[in-house]
Predict the 3D structure of the following.
Amino acid sequence: MMSPSTPYVQPGEPLNEFLRSFWQRQVDAAEQETPDYRHPPLPLARIKKVMKSDPDVKMIAADAPILFCKACEIFIAEITARAFIIADSNKRRTLSRADIAKALAKSDQFDFLIDIVPREDGLTGLAHQNQHQHPHPHQQHPSSGSTGSVGGGEGGGSAVAGPSQSTA
């Protein structure tokens, strides 16, 4: 097993090799881990709030947010590693929103995130669309009566949380 300080992805590692070992490392780490329930890596109150956003959810067992916390950690680690593979293939060490979008686009399992992280062609299409709707950021559009904004509109400007180093 790899130590917590060993990176998930080695520079130049192909995606299929990474995925082959990623989930086995996660299982091994979960089996050996003794979680500290008093100091979770993500805020349990926030996780519980998201869970309660479903009107059908009335009660939540105490251990449910802890399981979701671990699931979120793994989810973030996998997407971060996939995005790093994209950045590394472009000879960069800094992850960008475009790297995340490309990483998500490579697998259908992430299609549910399309509205949060639009595909790269969606990003350029959105910018192009906004340019035609609002030719100048401070001009009023004749039909809307509102001032345009660069990069505004539905789907633009969502933030992606940065990765946190997991000790699991």
In short: The longest helix spans residues 64-89. Helices lie at 15-32, 44-51, 64-89, 97-105, 120-133. The mean pLDDT is 75.
